[in-house]
């Protein structure tokens, strides 16, 4: 492995991403443009960004380990995300957009009240910082091991870099880098897959060298019950996680929000098959890995077959995928703090300039917290234990009630708090106290079923009871009145100047995406010239990436910036006020 070339590739791409963040420094005029892209983000951009926000280096470490040990079942498990996204697209994403809130926390305040919102903000912020801080750890470990760099400085450096472009550029900076790293990672995997198959002697050599049950849909501890539990969990997670809700609310209509979720589902139907094959192939090459060494299967196959520079490309993709997941959460946590705590509670009359300073400052504050968590992951038992444990404990109680409130007119704030508290208490008991007091520990599948199933059962019980009594929640009636007032205000206070600036920002974002793809294509052409193997494949992928750059460029040209005479007059009047 030529670490000099690989390091150079990582440095060049990282510098390029930071420049992208800086380009968007002046595009965020207010919270709506900074955190929601002016609610006019193209749906295919939102869908790709949502897809990559779901990824992290943990995908390659954790799922790669399962693929190496058990084979196809790693793909089966990830298909549950496709099912969750389909349900979200059909029922949940359009509801979130129609709710008219900038953040999920804003909807919770309007529908369930300030007390519920405060409790949820506290839990969500704590959970997000812990989970997204923990996923920073594996990519820092991958980079440090591959390039012989110290782990702690590597973790801090990568974390600071992640915070920098998120705090400066807002949602558009996050989405542009999401698209860029989607292309980088996809290009690397499409190069890795044929080279891996060639090393093992083709498809026939691969299938003949792995265990007989390697292509079973279910395998080992990953039973049908576990998979079904994951389906339920991912419906709640993809449909209700606040970081994903931001993608549904940042597009222009409920129809576009549905398309965002459907694109995510389509990508998760195809991508697991392509991305999980390399560690499966490595099983045929080296079947001797055991224990925690199986988590390195993806990295080992990359080091074995990728030519100089392309390992750096793969590591860059893994880092960007982690940063996409973490910086999306960072952007939303900052949005919730700025919009729902600072503006909503502390300083309701804050100016746009004040709010933007708080937005960027809170991004740094929460980002540094994530770095601190990442440094503590090894002492907590590793990323898989941390992420799955926190998700099992908090997922259902935190996500299910707001999703239910999207449809129910009977759910009250008091009931919401009780169900959330009962769910958290039961999950914490089985996770922490039960193994200690009763010497009894739930399986992963049982943890997930109870974690999501119990809140849903309690919600259904209350809904049936309230329905029999003919009750309608007072909070729901207030929410309906608030929505109507917001619609009337929106019609009376149409800001033509803001509409113009949003279109201008979105055209700029699409052009930056096009230029980023062109830059990536040129880089791949340069790497193909250095490749000792796979030069033709790399050059072919480079050509595809260059052609793909035409899509956002042509889309940007369709955005009309010319104001009509009436719009121009409104814009001048608004500027003179």
UniProtKB/TrEMBL annotation:
The keyword Ion transport applies. It comes from the Bacteria. Keywords: Cell membrane, Ion transport, Membrane, Sodium, Sodium transport, Transmembrane, Transmembrane helix, Transport. Its main location: membrane. It is a multi-pass membrane protein. This is Transporter, SSS family. It comes from Nibrella saemangeumensis. The chain crosses the membrane at residues 6-28, 40-66, 72-93, 119-137, 149-172, 179-197, 217-239, 260-277, 297-320, 363-380, 386-405, 417-437, 449-466, 508-529, 535-553. InterPro entries: Na/Glc_symporter_sf, Na/solute_symporter, Sodium:Solute_Symporter_SSF. The keyword Transmembrane applies. It is found in: Cell membrane. Belongs to the sodium:solute symporter (SSF) (TC 2.A.21) family. Signal peptide: none annotated.
């Amino acid at each position: 492995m030529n670490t000099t070339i690989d390091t150079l590739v990582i440095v060049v791409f990282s510098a390029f991403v930071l420049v992208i963040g800086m380009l968007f420094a002046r595009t965020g005029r207010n919270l709506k443009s900074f955190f929601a892209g002016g609610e006019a983000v193209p749906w295919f951009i939102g869908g790709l960004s949502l897809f990559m926000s779901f990824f992290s280096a943990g995908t390659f470490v954790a799922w790669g380990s399962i693929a190496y040990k058990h084979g196809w079942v790693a793909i089966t498990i990830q298909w549950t995300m496709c099912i969750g996204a389909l349900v979200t697209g059909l029922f949940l994403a359009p509801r979130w957009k129609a709710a008219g809130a900038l953040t999920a926390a804003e909807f919770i305040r309007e529908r369930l009240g300030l007390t519920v919102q405060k409790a949820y903000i506290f839990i969500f912020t704590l959970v997000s910082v812990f989970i997204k801080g923990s996923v920073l750890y594996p990519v820092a470990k991958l980079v440090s091991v591959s390039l012989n760099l110290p782990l702690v400085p590597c973790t801090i450096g990568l974390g600071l870099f992640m915070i920098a472009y998120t705090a400066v550029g807002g949602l558009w900076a996050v989405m542009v880098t999401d698209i860029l790293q989607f292309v980088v990672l996809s290009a690397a995997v499409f190069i890795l897959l044929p080279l891996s198959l060639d090393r093992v002697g083709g498809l026939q050599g691969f299938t003949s060298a792995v265990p007989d049950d390697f292509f079973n849909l279910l395998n080992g501890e990953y039973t049908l019950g576990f998979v079904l539990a994951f389906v339920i969990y991912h419906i709640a997670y993809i449909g209700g996680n606040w970081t994903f809700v931001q993608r549904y609310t940042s597009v222009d209509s409920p129809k576009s929000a549905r398309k965002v979720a459907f694109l995510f589902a389509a990508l998760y139907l195809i991508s697991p098959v392509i991305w999980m094959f390399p560690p499966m192939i490595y099983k045929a090459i080296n079947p001797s890995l055991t224990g925690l060494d199986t988590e390195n299967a993806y990295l080992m196959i990359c080091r074995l077959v990728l030519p100089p520079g392309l390992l750096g490309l793969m590591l860059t993709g893994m880092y960007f995928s982690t940063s996409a997941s973490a910086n999306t959460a960072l952007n939303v946590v900052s949005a919730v703090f700025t919009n729902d705590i600072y503006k909503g509670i502390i300083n309701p009359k804050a100016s746009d300039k004040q709010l933007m300073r708080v937005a960027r400052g809170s991004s740094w504050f929460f980002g540094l917290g994530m770095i601190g968590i990442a440094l503590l992951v090894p002492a907590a038992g590793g990323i898989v234990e941390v992420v799955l444990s926190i998700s099992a404990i908090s997922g259902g109680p935190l996500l299910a009630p707001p999703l239910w409130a999207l449809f129910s007119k009977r759910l009250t704030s008091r009931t919401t708090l009780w169900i959330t508290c009962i769910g958290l208490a039961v999950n914490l008991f089985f996770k922490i106290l039960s193994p200690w007091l009763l010497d009894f520990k739930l399986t992963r599948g049982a943890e997930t079923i109870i974690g999501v199933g119990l809140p849903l059962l309690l919600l259904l019980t209350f809904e049936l009871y309230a329905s029999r009594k003919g009750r309608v929640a007072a909070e729901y009636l207030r929410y309906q009145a608030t929505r109507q007032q917001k619609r009337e205000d929106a019609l009376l206070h149409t800001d033509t100047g803001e509409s113009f600036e949003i279109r201008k920002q979105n055209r700029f974002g699409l052009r930056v995406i096009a230029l980023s793809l062109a830059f990536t294509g040129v880089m791949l052409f340069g790497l193909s010239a250095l490749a000792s193997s796979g030069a033709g494949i790399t050059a072919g992928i480079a050509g595809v990436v260059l052609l793909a750059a035409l899509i956002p460029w042509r889309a940007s040209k369709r955005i009309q910036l010319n104001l009509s005479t009436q719009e121009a007059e409104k814009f001048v009047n608004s500027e003179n006020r």
